[in-house]
Structure formats: structure tokens, C-alpha cells
Design brief:
The complex is a heterodimer of chains A (about 110) and B (about 375). By secondary structure, chain A is mainly alpha-helical. Helices cover about 85% and strands about 0% of the residues of chain A. In chain A, α1 (about 1-25) packs antiparallel against α2 (about 30-55) and α2 packs antiparallel against α3 (about 60-90). Classes of the chains: A mainly alpha (about 110), B mainly alpha (about 375).
């Protein structure tokens, strides 16, 4: 059961990492890319750490991993927020649909 | 199976190292170069973990990927963000040939190296077994790396600490913080009021920083005093402690950090020297008590207790120096931004906004 849970969490984490990587490559503008990247930052990292903590069982290692998880849960979204805010202040504006629509249209043709 | 896995991870890490190295060479935006070199350091740290050198990995991650990136960014803010077009042409053909030949030679030499972790390798034949078996017994410190760093190679570490101290002295001499570059209060306009609104939107950063800073400082103390039992020690702890304070300074404005460390950096200036003095003082104390310089055996009745005490004190000295040197370097680089009213540094925005906040407070105070 413990092994199963650990593998499940880590697999989900790796899956969301892959999704976030695809998102960073495929999305059209800065903000959507940041949205994809922050999935890898927060969700994937948290799932993998959770999986490792489950695999470690009730021990000091698990406690430390949980602390790392809490730390990441606070810092990663903050980092994404700071990036987005700085970009906005710097004058980068979201491409309203254009890039995304274009890339989808070119796919359909 | 595990050997293949380790080989695969090694190969992947090496490939990424190569890509980041080429990226550093090819990128034109120097901010990007700084970020990529931070990635390079992090990859190196991962390598060290694979080699079971966790103490070194810890240092590399804290210093290379963490704080030096911040210091480089602070330094970059004082210069231009892009490098010139001509910079690539500086690499002329003879230089390329020399580099290539030296690289080949190094590669050829590395073929003669014994395999990693080979028990028959010369390194693992002479002193290493003695350190590993004797070290923890003679000092009651289980972490052999700390024993080697602070006791067997105490002179070497003293030298390193002095080097860190010298770096701070050089930066101070070059950038002249001792003249006391007090912030120049600039006149506020209506445009500043808009900026004040943006300043308020930094609330998330401020709250998170407020919550995290004490934990970062606590973790630094843990790393400092747990260095005897696990990976850690003065260098890592010093950098983490400084990182906590620098984070505070970056988010809340450099003036708030100055409130913590004292105007004209009084506190770090003295503590940086005190760390080196503490280290050397332990050496002198052991001389006085009849031992050799930095021979901790004589510090207590029981030589093993003496060793433990000596290592603890020496590591604390290292931690003190590293913390305060890092804070000094950061304050010197970042504090230059608004010298003589020039507002171009990374911290100038928050400093200006601090002024706006003061103005607001004054306005609010007037009607009553």
C-alpha cells in the first residue's frame, strides 16, 4: 500500500512536470507560459516530494521532506507572482487570444 | 541496475551542464547569463550529491546557485544589461587552438585517473583511511568532513576565511561604502503616487518574506550548529543567514536592512573581523595552553572534548565572517544605486517608494 501510494504520487508528479514542460514550449505568450511553468514549480514538486515522504515512511526524513514541501508551497507561487507582476510593470501585456488562436488554427488546417 | 541508472543520470547531468555552458557563452543578455550560471551551479551541486559529497553540494547550492546569483544581479544593475556585439570577436583563432589543445591534454590526462571511488586509488590509500577511522574517535564529531575541514586542515580553512574577509575589504575599498552613502531623499511628484499604488500591490511578497525570514535564519543556525553531526557548517550557514537578511532587504527596501545592521554598516563591519579573530584566537589560545597553533587537544581536560570545542568555535568564526561579508558586499553593491540621488540601482525603486510612504504618513498626520 505504501509503495503503491508513493509510486502513484511520484508518477502523478512526473506527469504534471511533463505537462508543464509541454505548456512552456507550446503556449504563445509570457503569462500563459508562466502559468504552465508554475504547475511544474508547485504541483509537480509537491507531488514528487509527497511521494518521497510516503516512501520514506514515518521517519525524520519524511518530516524533513514535508518541511521542504511547505517551503516550496509558500515560495514557488510567490516567485511566479513576482515574475508576473514584474512583467506587467515592465509593460509586457498578454496577447489577447491571437497567438493561441493562430497556433490552433494552423493545426486544424 | 543501479549502476546503469547512475550512469544515465550522470550522462543527463553532463549533457545539461554542456548545454548551460554553451548557453552562457552564446547569450547576449547578461541577466540571462547570470540566471544560466545559477543553473550551472545547481547542476554541479546535483553532481556532488551523486558523488556522495553532500557537504560540498550544500555549499555549491547555497553559494553558487543562491547568493552569488543575487550578488551578480546587484552588480549587473550597476552596469549595462547587454554585452557588446564585438565581444565575441575577442576570441581569436590562436586562443581557440590553445584552448582546444589544453582541453585535449586534460582529457588525455584524465584517462590515467583511477576510477571514482576506487579503493586502490592513491587518494584512498594514505591519509583518507586514517581520517575516516581516527577522525570521529579523536574528536567525538561524527561528520568526518567537518573534522577534516576544521581540525586536520584547520590552517587551510583559516586561510579560506581570511580570503572571504579580504574579498569584503576589497569590495569596500573599490566601492567605498565607508564614505557613508546615505540615501538622498528625492522630491516626490504625482507620478510617485501611482508608484505608491504599485508598491501596495507588493503585499504578497512582503507577507511571505515576513513569514519566511525567521525560519530561514533559524535554519541557518541549525546548519551552523548541526554541522558536527550532518552536512553543514560555517560556510553554508553563513550564506543562508545572509540570504535571509538580503531577502528582507530586497523586499522591504535597503533602508530597513540598514536599520537592522546599523547605519554605515557598523555591525557587519565589526562582526566580519570578529569571525576571523575568533578563528585565529582559538589558535592563539591553544598556543598559550601549550599546544601547537590550532591544536584543539589542549583546549579542555579531555583532548576529545577539546577537539569538539575547538571545531565548534572555529566553525562559528567562519559562519560569522561569511554572513557579514555577504551582507556587506550586497549592501555595497545595491546601496550604490541611489548614491548622489542617482536612482538606477535595483533597490532604488523600493527606496523611493519608501520615501513616498513617508510622505503619505506625513500627509495623514497633518490634518490632526
Amino acid at each position: 500500500m505504501q509503495d503503491f501510494l508513493a509510486v502513484l504520487f511520484i508518477a502523478l508528479g512526473v506527469l504534471s512536470l511533463i505537462i508543464s514542460a509541454i505548456g512552456v514550449l507550446r503556449f504563445p505568450d509570457f503569462y500563459t507560459r508562466l502559468h504552465a511553468a508554475s504547475i511544474g514549480d508547485t504541483l509537480a514538486a509537491a507531488l514528487i516530494l509527497l511521494g518521497l515522504a510516503v516512501a520514506a515512511g514515518w521517519s525524520l526524513v519524511a518530516a524533513k521532506l514535508i518541511f521542504v514541501l511547505l517551503f516550496l508551497f509558500m515560495t514557488s507561487p510567490t516567485a511566479s507572482h513576482a515574475l508576473a507582476q514584474t512583467a506587467w510593470r515592465d509593460g509586457i501585456r498578454p496577447e489577447k487570444g491571437t497567438g493561441l488562436v493562430k497556433s490552433f488554427k494552423s493545426k486544424k488546417r | 541496475m543501479t549502476e546503469t541508472a547512475v550512469f544515465a543520470v550522470n550522462l543527463a547531468l553532463l549533457a545539461m551542464l554542456l548545454v548551460t555552458a554553451v548557453g552562457i557563452l552564446k547569450l547576449y543578455n547578461l541577466f540571462a547569463v547570470v540566471m544560466v550560471s545559477g543553473m550551472y551551479s545547481l547542476l554541479c551541486a546535483a553532481f556532488f550529491v551523486l558523488m556522495d559529497a553532500v557537504d560540498v553540494a550544500f555549499t555549491e547550492a547555497a553559494v553558487g546557485a543562491g547568493l552569488s546569483t543575487v550578488l551578480m544581479l546587484a552588480a549587473l544593475a550597476l552596469t549595462r544589461p547587454n554585452r557588446k556585439d564585438g565581444d565575441h570577436k575577442a576570441l581569436n583563432i590562436p586562443a581557440k587552438i590553445v584552448t582546444f589543445v589544453v582541453g585535449l591534454l586534460l582529457f588525455w590526462i584524465s584517462m590515467d585517473f583511477p576510477g571514482f571511488g576506487d579503493p586502490l586509488a592513491p587518494v584512498n590509500q594514505h591519509l583518507a583511511p586514517q581520517f575516516l577511522t581516527e577522525g570521529p574517535e579523536k574528536t567525538t564529531v561524527p561528520n568526518v568532513v567537518t573534522v577534516v575541514l576544521a581540525s586536520y586542515r584547520g590552517y587551510d580553512t583559516l586561510g579560506e576565511t581570511v580570503v572571504v574577509f579580504t574579498a569584503a575589504v576589497s569590495v569596500l575599498c573599490l566601492l567605498g561604502v565607508l564614505r557613508g552613502n546615505a540615501p538622498v531623499r528625492s522630491k516626490t511628484t504625482e507620478a510617485d503616487e501611482e508608484e505608491f499604488q504599485e508598491f501596495n500591490s507588493q503585499i504578497i511578497l512582503r507577507v511571505i518574506t515576513k513569514y519566511l525570514t525567521p525560519f530561514i535564519l533559524l535554519f541557518a543556525l541549525y546548519v551552523q550548529f548541526h554541522g558536527d553531526y550532518g552536512p553543514g557548517g560555517g560556510f553554508q550557514a553563513g550564506v543562508i543567514f545572509a540570504a535571509g537578511l538580503i531577502l528582507y532587504g530586497m523586499v522591504y527596501g535597503i533602508d530597513r536592512l540598514r536599520d537592522v545592521v546599523g547605519q554605515k554598516h557598523r555591525v557587519p563591519l565589526r562582526l566580519a573581523g570578529l569571525g576571523v579573530l575568533l578563528y585565529a584566537g582559538v589558535g592563539v589560545a591553544s598556543l598559550m595552553l601549550g599546544g601547537n597553533f590550532l591544536d584543539y587537544n589542549v583546549l579542555a581536560e579531555d583532548p576529545r572534548q577539546g577537539q569538539h570545542l575547538g571545531i565548534l568555535l572555529v566553525e562559528f568564526g567562519v559562519g560569522l565572517t561569511v554572513t557579514n561579508v555577504m551582507i556587506l558586499v550586497f549592501l555595497t553593491l545595491a546601496g550604490r544605486g541611489y548614491r548622489d540621488g542617482v536612482t538606477s540601482g535595483p533597490m532604488s525603486l523600493s527606496a523611493e517608494l519608501q520615501d513616498v510612504e513617508d510622505l503619505q504618513n506625513e500627509k495623514e498626520a497633518k490634518p490632526s
